[in-house]
């Protein structure tokens, strides 16, 4: 019997929510590092392949270690089902392509991860799929962009890297009012299920780059989508064909990461507030983007939707692109790296990393300036992070 039915709190779910005790009584689920599963009889193989009996056949299709991670994620997101992938982009692309085809239409917000933006702007049109890019903060515009052939409305919240907030209740309500057939998909990577549960607001599917907060240690790459069983089944069918399945060892690492997610997120949230307040008061900082600050234009919405505000703080300094590069290069404790959600603090200029391949016009539309720095706070002592920022700011 699963322990899932007996647990309620977030961290208890993180530790026990998706686990199924094995016949050996293992406290930690083992790694099923195998590509193939054998059968004693053909009839048994047929029963598994026809879904008449639970089992595993081939790890590109499914694997016990991957299923353990998926069960925990479904539990944390209050979802019926989850599907894991080899990367966040594999989760995004497979989810979208499993639900749309030639002649269909997708509505996406402009403020999305650079790879997602390229997928929507360059790749989907090649397949005969039209994409409308809209303002993530304008729920009415999002709803009005829905057409008769619209299949997906897609958004991030908070957005990467300017930390805008999507009003999930309005997006879900207005979109369903326009068309009950439209599927809403939210990338909640920057929030994590600790800070935000999009499905509770009427969203259909939630996507994460599991590389970030879920894994939490900058040592594994993965992705996951959670939501209604019917939709996730379609995604899993596409995953078999596209092949972006999560590796069993990576799945085990992600399951291990989830066990401390609540603890880590409390520190990420705390560090985020302390660093954001420090930067907001610094004379060399032009503007700070952090939804936990009362100065954030959507602070009240963030408070309403979110449990905490995460460990990503973006800010603009006074100066040009070269001055900003000099600031980033002067950091010592904060490393130059294009990721987030790990135990180590990382800093980047989006214009030179995650959004480098966007055109200057598209970056301007998304509010990404040459002077913007994205700080992905780790779990170090906040005083040490602030001291490093202070010494780097003195050098510009």
List keywords for this structure.
5-stranded mixed sheet, globular, Aspartate Aminotransferase, domain 2, 396 residues, 7-stranded mixed sheet, alpha/beta
Briefly summarize what is shown:
This protein is of the alpha/beta class and 396 residues long.
Give an account of the 3D structure.
- The chain has 396 residues and is an alpha/beta fold.
- The chain has two domains: 8-258, Type I PLP-dependent aspartate aminotransferase-like (Major domain) (Aspartate Aminotransferase, domain 2, 3-Layer(aba) Sandwich), CATH 3.40.640; 261-394, Alpha-Beta Complex (Aspartate Aminotransferase, domain 1).
- 39% of the residues lie in helices and 15% in strands.
- It has helices spanning 10-16, 42-49, 64-76, 88-99, 114-126, 139-144, 168-178, 192-195, 229-242, 248-258, 261-280, 299-305, 321-330, 360-365, 382-394; strands at 81-85, 105-109, 130-134, 150-156, 183-187, 205-209, 223-227, 285-289, 312-317, 335-336, 346-348, 372-376.
- A seven-stranded mixed beta sheet has the order 1-7-6-5-4-2-3, sandwiched between helices.
- Helix 1 packs antiparallel against helix 3 (64-76) and helix 3 packs parallel to helix 10.
- The termini are far apart.
- The mean pLDDT is 94.
